[in-house]
Amino acid sequence: MSDDSYARYWPCNSTVEDHIEFSPDIISRYLIYDWLPDLGAINASDFMGWPARLTESVQGPLGERTYLGLQSRVGLSERQWSGFLSWMIGVAGARHVLAREGYGWVAPASAFYPEARAEVATGALPPGLIPTELMVARPSPPTSNLRPDYLAVRKNDKGLYELALAEAKGTGDALQNKEVCPPRWREQVRNATVSWQGRGVVVSRHIVIATRSNSKAKYAETRRFQIRAWNSEEPESVDQPGVIRAIAVVQLYGLARNLALPKLAKGILMGEWLRLQEFHREDGLAIGGRNEMKTEHVQDQLLEQQKLFYAELERLDEHSARIGSGVSTYSIELMPELLQLMRRLATPKTIVESQSFVDYMDKSQLLRTADSTYPEQSDEPSWVFPGVRVHVKHRGSD
């Protein structure tokens, strides 16, 4: 199968068809990060190894490029499995488009639900230990029974930060004639309000990204993947650096867990908990009213574990993680700037104020802009998000 494959693509609110690189490796890269945390390398390889086995290359109608689509045998599977597969493809397509739009920092919106009681399988924080003052709640009245999937931030060309709510959709419906976002999807992505320390935060964009996969189609041409995005946009920016920090903390916590670094993940949570307790010592606020642990107890635990997650970080300095899918080997590499950011979060004696935290991200080029150059598919390492690269080696290659 050719590595240079694409999907049919309609960018945000565009009526003109384009194309976007979309290969088995690209799908797998996003599943490595966005799939269930804590599965471990063996189970994770089962989940992220399927794209190379269930997809095929299809020549475009004019022979100008190769597109990616599902193999016909996928259509023989039960409806529940087809729906599950469609959902995973939808996640990969949405994360890929968000990256193209400059959103390097993306967190599951469910991590910020005020009523959260159970752990969320996409990297949210455990119940009772959610070290953030950022909340994503239902509006009154609600516009849907469901809420959007992601909260994302990017830096615009004016140097300001834009916040977006995004929804990923997997569908079997053709997208070429859907110039207007379907009402139920539009209502879902708007079914959330964002607040920081109890004050409303302006959401600059509401983005819906749908990826079409139709395994039941008779012809290979009609089984090609289609990706379409819609958005509503308001020229507003986020002026609270704590919002950016909260999204980054959740993303880094999920990354540490996915790379099987539990001590570091716990250190990031504890460090943030201590930081917020320090800022709210006067009013005795227990983060979000959901935590009864004492500061001294958390600090003692963090100090005890510090040597353990420092050992994990030393291992990361040499090599972060390697996962084999049977077809390809994926090596995940963390850049020194990102490692330093994680160290800062997990160090109890270094309480970094949010503005300084964001300034460091900016200075280290960990905050992408809307017009950032996104690397085309090639043999070079591919970026999953700022500071993380995924190297791919196919079986049988040198």
Notes on the structure:
With 398 residues, this protein is an alpha+beta fold. Helices cover 33% and strands 22% of the residues. It has ten helices and 16 strands. It has helices at residues 24-34, 40-48, 51-54, 79-100, 183-189, 241-258, 262-279, 295-318, 336-345, 354-363, and strands spanning 5-10, 18-21, 55-59, 66-70, 105-108, 134-137, 150-155, 161-171, 193-196, 199-200, 205-212, 226-233, 321-324, 328-334, 382-385, 388-394. The strands form three sheets. Strands 1, 2, 3, 4, 5, 7, 8, 11 and 12 form a nine-stranded mixed β-sheet that branches. A hairpin with a 2-residue loop joins strand 9 and strand 10 (199-200). Helix 1 packs antiparallel against helix 2 (40-48), helix 1 (24-34) crosses helix 4 and helix 7 crosses helix 8 (295-318). The protein is globular, with a radius of gyration of 21 Å. The chain starts with a strand and ends with a strand.
Percent in helix: 25-40%
Largest sheet, strands/sense/barrel: 9 strands, mixed
Number of extended strands: 16
| Unreliable runs | 40-44, 117-129, 282-293, 371-381
Protein traits:
four-stranded antiparallel sheet; nine-stranded mixed sheet; 33% helix; alpha+beta; 398 residues; 10 helices
Compact overview of the structure:
The chain is α+β, with helices and mostly antiparallel strands and 398 residues long.
Secondary structure topology:
Layout: E1 5-10, E2 18-21, H1 24-34, H2 40-48, H3 51-54, E3 55-59, E4 66-70, H4 79-100, E5 105-108, E6 134-137, E7 150-155, E8 161-171, H5 183-189, E9 193-196, E10 199-200, E11 205-212, E12 226-233, H6 241-258, H7 262-279, H8 295-318, E13 321-324, E14 328-334, H9 336-345, H10 354-363, E15 382-385, E16 388-394
Helix pairs in contact: 1-2, 1-4, 6-7, 6-10, 7-8
